[in-house]
Write a structure and sequence with these properties.
The longest helix is centred in the C-terminal third of the chain and has 18 residues. The protein has 260 residues and is of the alpha/beta class. α5 links the parallel β7 and β8. α2 runs parallel beside α4 and α6 crosses α8. It has 9 helices and 10 strands. The protein starts with a strand and ends with a helix.
């Protein structure tokens, strides 16, 4: 299972500037749910609270008030029921791709032959089994992200959290990994919550898109595209893609002054 629920979640930060302390309201009583196996995108202008929501769900930050649950259990810190993929893979540079994936499994307590077999299986899932002995400096940006995804999936989390996972990649690599993520989802059925600034990416990957502004949920848009998704080039040419993308654009540009 992998159901995620935010209930009236707020998050405030203290920021000290020129000797004065300012309170920053990063999240303001947001509520939404994600069903088991669903892919949901968080989109919105910079500073709207997308990444903060993701970090609270992961347990990296604690909410000031409200409640986040995974399968009915309160999030009180990081746990193996959630895996995180960052914008930059953050691999350990002195370890090979295989060892980076094994590291997370070792932290979970896995030992022996199962440890290597599991790491190899997930590297194979992301198409990197032949590169398992390379160190991060020998991998392209896209390959590093694949290792990061394999590392997050290998611990078998209920929920995969992704913070702009393809944002730092070139367009061609980004499109290849978007298709690969959809393929992984089709094979694993993982619940996925991801942050993106890319309207096209949100429509191509997600089942629902949550538009955030000013730390609040501004709108929720359902993506009327069936799964499994066909070739993404075909999806881009559909009426459903164009209409959904325009709905997101409209939501982002409602009360434009509010964004700035």
């Amino acid at each position: 299972m992998g159901q995620v629920t935010f209930t009236d979640v707020s998050k405030r930060f203290s920021l000290r500037v020129d000797g004065e302390t300012h309170l920053i309201q990063a999240l303001d009583r947001i509520s939404f749910s994600i069903d088991d196996g669903e892919i949901v995108a968080l989109i919105g202008p910079s500073g709207c609270g997308k990444t903060t929501a993701l970090r609270v769900a992961m347990g990296l930050d604690r909410s000031t008030s409200g409640r986040v649950t995974v399968d009915g259990h309160d999030v009180k810190g990081c746990g193996y029921d959630r895996g995180m993929v960052f914008q930059h893979a953050e691999l350990l540079p002195w370890l090979s791709a295989l060892q980076n994936v094994m590291f997370g499994l070792e932290m979970k307590g896995m030992r022996g032959g199962e440890l290597r077999d599991t790491a190899e299986r997930y590297l194979d899932l992301v198409g990197l089994k032949e590169s398992q002995n390379r160190r991060p400096h020998q991998l392209s940006g896209g390959m590093k992200q694949r290792v990061g995804i394999a590392r997050a999936l290998a611990i078998d989390p209920s929920v995969l959290l992704m913070d702009e996972p393809f944002g730092a990649l070139d367009a061609q690599t980004r499109e290849a990994l978007q298709a690969e993520l959809l393929d992984i989802h089709a094979r694993t059925g993982k619940t996925i919550l991801f942050v993106t600034h890319d309207l096209d990416e949100a429509v191509l990957i997600a089942d629902r898109i949550i538009v955030m502004k000013g730390g609040r949920v501004h709108d929720t848009i359902k993506v009327p595209l069936a799964r499994p998704r066909p070739d993404l080039g075909i999806v881009r040419g559909t009426v459903e893609f164009a209409e959904t993308r325009y709905k997101i654009w409209q939501a982002l540009h409602d009360n434009a002054a509010e964004i700035h």
